[in-house]
Fold each of these.
Amino acid sequence: MIFATTIASIMMTVPTPHFVAIVGATLIEVSKEGRAESDIKDSVVLIADGHIVAIGDRNQVRLPSGTKVVNATHRFVIPGLIDGFGAVRTQGFADAYLYEGVTTVIVPTAPQGANVDGESAVVAPQNGLSVVTGAPISGYSATGDIPKASPWTSHRLQDRRLDRAELTAQVAAAADAGRRIVAVEIDVWPDQLDVIVNEAHRRGLAVTAELAFTSYPNAINAGVDAFVRNDKYPLTLSRPQDFLAYADDPMGSGGSAAARAVCSPEMPDPTAFGNQLQASHTALMPTLSMEATADDVGGPNPWTLRAATFVDLSDLDDPVDPTSGARPYLDSHPERRDRIQTCARRKQEIDRRLHALGAVYLAGTATLSYGVIPGGGLHGELRLLQSTGLTPREALAAATSNIASAFRLADRGKLESGRRADLVVLTADPRIDVASVDAIAELWLTVNLSIG
């Protein structure tokens, strides 16, 4: 079933007939990591039963009798946006996402009180937002959790590692629970990673990773689909002994030397890492919005965003002050303020260089962290990706086709026959500036009230 929703009221939904045709818009091509340019002007998108039935030039697509025609002349159509690292704590979050054209949200999950990224509870949206969930996998814990204590020497040397059968069972349990992604935690070893990736891919699940006990080059060879957070994967550019120190104490001060190397004026050369990424299928999800908001380096006061009207202050983690715009994390380290901001900009520069070397990017916001707003945070992420060197089309692909491909979501993310009819109609051209994703005229989506 398809609903049309206007930007004027996210809660107004109007059921449509069996066939609907959006006619006259320019369809924006987002395939080939945003390098393809086979846009279709004066187009037709024919929709039925929640999916795209046909797509093409107005003169080439024949409309069945009784088709409802929607005039979209002088407008632009893109696939529904995907936030690769979000959260749905309330129905307001779900409304905020749809209000900003985000039709799919990928939510990492974690046990209550766990020391890993993820939500312990996800609200089932009542508005058609599609929620895709992921599960954490640790090298030692059956729940996916990692130790809070620091340093980790005893954890590395004395705790019992999970064996092949246990890791395989964890992946199977994630798949059976409807998870679509497994998130490899920082205490997974290389031999364990091979088991996890092979079993996840065999079951059609994607694999993301934040690493300490395993090197990032090793993980590329293992076939990990995406590295998450640009405060993590740049550490691989440090000296081997510094990365080893980080591995021994990743939750404490062990990463200090590695971080200093990354943030020093003499930035380490990312060429080898970038070349390896370019030759692989492993993508990067930097979650730029999280650090930009926390450190005030390109992130606006989230409360100035229009999606903020759907969110309560108490729903966010370490939020920016709504009135003053004060950043709690940054303001709690006044003696390190300049150094923190310099380091954040340095990591953005590393992403710029990695992109220039051919790395593929995915858009994820780490919504909630430091007050990143659902929906509006993804628009900010796309602007940050563009400022990091991606073309507007490449930034758009990072939130559509790239993430659908990396996370094996073959039913969305592109304007193609057979895919979900999750579409955003814009009044401005996102090929000129990705900020045009703000100019939403209409949202079309496939209603799906389940969480997978």
Note: Residues 289 and 380 are 7 Å apart (CA to CA).
Amino acid sequence: MNERTYTVNITGYASGGEGVARLEDGRVVFVRGAARGDKCEITITSEHPRSCNADIKSIIHPSEHRILSDCPHYPECGGCDFRHITYEEELRAKLNRVNNALERIAKATVRAEDIISTGQINGYRNKAVFHIESKEENTIVGFYRENTNDICPIEKCLLLEDEINDALHIIRSNPPCATGSIALRTGGKANSSQVEINLDDVIYEVSQESFFQVNNDAALLLFRRARDYAALLPSENLLDIYCGVGSMTLFIGRDARYALGVESNSIAVDDARNNANRNGIGNVDFICADAMEHDYSGLKPDCIIVDPPRKGLAPAVVKKILEMAPSRIVYVSCDPATLSRDISRLYDYEATKISAVDMFPRTANVECCLLLVRR
């Protein structure tokens, strides 16, 4: 079978970080590892009725935004998407992703004017999961390659805090098991399974089973922006749905008359209650309940915060929010597409402000913080 190749000009980026171009027949083609401005020869790897995927066979004319990767494992391990372009170009791509979703899906007029960033593109991740596999006399320690269970050996990950890379060196020299996985997180307390994180003098103790943002400094920027958008008065009440360990409930709710966090993970709820007690924040309660099934009747929150999973808000949750009719909603999202879809569902509200936050530099992921105000 003859290899089919095409020459294309890369004009932008897809949500997964692939370069985007068009073939002469009108189909969109997604090219892994391409940069906006590249002219390249590509090989088709898979086809669909209106699109296809491709690899770069050769770069005829490189983009001005293209750089040499600083990581020997890129792109093999699949953990990063943008190590072949400048950081300025990466931020532009993420900002465009957010604004394109708002325009195309939500038909909204609000736009993110800039993207908030710490400026630190390496050494920011506070957590990693390594996989271990013994083959004959060799033991491999690393990450799964994208969409596989095949381990890519890792000597050092540039995204990780030094403490984790130091631990990785020890694990590679003396693996704790022949086959399995091990999760590492910085901030561990002596003789405890919990880690400790301090953001603006709010101290969080987080169990290994509980979720917390992997980039502490960027999380602080996100929480501050959400707090600004919530703009709580001392006389107002806050409801935080999908509250996790109470990270934003405590950070923002300390400004309120009363704040309530709802979370289905019982371990996270225990962490949230302990965090409230440790920080002496007495105007906050937490309940363990499913966001879709909990009875919110009787609650009259002035502001609701939602930070749902990637799939966004379930229709039942949207219905409950509309029934409670808060004056404003602060929506934190890791997926601009589902966020934009939910804007349309929350039809009683107008999207007035949005910020993009670079929580995960060198990857295609982008965090958003949106303010919705009741019409």
Note: The first helix runs from residue 87 to 106.
Amino acid sequence: MSFPQLSVIITNYNHARYLPTCLQAVLDQSVQPHEIIVIDDASTDHSVEVIDGFARRHPLIRFYRNKENQGVVWGMNRGLDLARGDYIYYAAADDQILPGFFEKSLGLLRQYPQAALSCTIGDWWEVATGLNWHVAVSMTESAGFIAPAEMVRLEREGKLYIASHAAIMRREAILEAGKFLPEFKWFCDWFAIYVAGFRHGICFVPEPLAQFNIHRASYYKSGARTPRAHRDVLQKMLDRLNQKELQDVEPLIRESGALFIFGLPVLQVLLRQTAYRRYLTPAFLWKNLWHITKLQLKKATPSFLGNWYFRISGYRARAPVPPA
């Protein structure tokens, strides 16, 4: 049985201790990618030795080294340019994928080639606290294609969630969305994925098949440490969303209330910017306020109690594998 060609892209900076787990999880998949592109961003640890060792043993690996540090988003776009496959997957060096991820995702994308991407339930581990929960648990009960109009309905009901670490993307759909815009920093993947998804629809596998390990120093967390920069990025996203070339997806994102995920900072931006108060829809407001509340409760809740709550309240699809 043939599957679409997949390029796996791994950008790395000083994650030598995590790379073996990440790379081995990719190499152990039942369906192998067409290539594994590893871009080291001028690491100062022994990452190069680790990658070299894997590359010598596995011809699938194409290794590129930056002479100077270029940053995460630069590496993502560099990988996109280098990719030869029709589909791309970004495997963070400190995360890992679970068995069956490629086979089940690519199988769906073969059935629905119009889809922008295929995603799964995301398995999230907060390393410092031990908190573990799943995202997109209630999106759909069976694997299949979700059209843009259905995505809007699911989002309005608080059920849509596209976890970027669990998304295999059609390369052309991401290029059409404008690639990963550096000015959007921590949110560049969210923007590209949601624009492409609301434009073409998505596939979904209702199983936790990709594990996201959240470290205190993660790039994912860096926006929250600089509130003003955080709001500036959100302002740029709103400006971009309202440009002519995105007029096909802007109403869907607005009507669905998808911007709720950015919590208090996006609410502050929308309240201050009269031109964008139309995004303050009932769907946005109830989801946004509940999201802000949950984030505050998570900070104040002991880990054992938080994990107990996640188990009984539907934030776990099944028992996951602990992070290595």
Note: The chain has a mean pLDDT of 93.
Amino acid sequence: MLNSNTQSEFHLISMKFKMVREASLKIAEPLSEEDMQVQSMPEASPIKWHLAHTSWAFETFILKPHCKNYRVFNQKFEYLFNSYYNAIGQQFPRAQRGLLTRPDYKEVLAYRQHIDLNMLDFIEKLLPENESLINLLLLMINHEQQHQELMLTDIKHAFFVNPEYPVYKKSKSPEYVASPLQWKKHAAGLYEIGHKNESFYFDNEGPRHHAYLDSFAITSRLITCGEYLEFIENGGYQQASLWLSEAWSSIQSDKITSPFYWIKKQGKWFHYTLSGLIPLELNSPVMHINYFEANAYAASVDKRLPTEQEWEVASTDISLEGSYCDLDRLHPCTARGNDLQQMFGELWQWTSSSYNAYPGFKAPEGAIGEYNGKFMVNQYVLRGGSIATPRDHIRASYRNFFYPDASWQYTGIRLAETI
């Protein structure tokens, strides 16, 4: 029999499971079935696929191996909705997910309802001493929250491809004020890096370890559209000396002259948002910047990007307040005051750190070990979360990672310098 504390813990887990599952459907709510079918590039996925894949994850990693009498919804889904887990089996080609017109949306909804009913029943029967199973459940809940962010960024990309620039959800952007750019100094020293044994963290956030840092300073806010526009007008995209070689060849061949989602019409700049195409807000933080652009901008002002260790140290004692995944206001907040601002829940911030393992890292055994470890190559770490990140999903030690040419995520620029 469960004691009251354990019953309370399971109740909270059950509530979070239901809230997260409902939140995914809330993101899909403004969309038509045609919207949910489209796949605009190989790196993105249809909304319908996200809704099915997150259900597949609960079924594959929890219900099938741990629920004795579980009935599989559809055997074919193991192949259709497996993302990249080779230990599970073959996967339908990622770049062709938009071709999966069947199962249709109604069947995907039925699949989700089947998973929800079985999962809620299973959570009630979890044994309190089975800590590893509870951790696996929390991982799957957080996995769905990651896909909620991808749902928003993927549909934004799909809508941008449409020359009518559809509106996902109309919302008014704030009146932006950019406080003066200041530098926040941090002394040299030996710092602890990594998770602090929060109730949940991803395996790549540990083990907690020491890192020595030279004294450094970091900017008080994110770089604005106006500041980045000055970089453009000063010929930033035409100066080879500012760019890494791999980026420069792409800029030349693809004739890139501005950030992704920026459009110039009749001499005026606009940018595409989930509220449609709007005039460029000069005081809003510049977003959808890839690593190459962030690095080039830093070089243009004789600064650099922070390391992920510097970013984490700077974020100590900073409030986790931010815009996060507010579907009624999918815009980053304005920068006011002199304190360190816009650290969390506004835009993911590029660091100069390559995504690799912390000292002592060991991937978990089995298929779940493929979750983070096998991607530790050729990517860069981002910190802080974005306006598409669920509020209770982020923490200072959270390590996001993307390839350096990725622009469709909500990414921005914070500068650093050695002092």
Note: The longest strand covers residues 348-354.
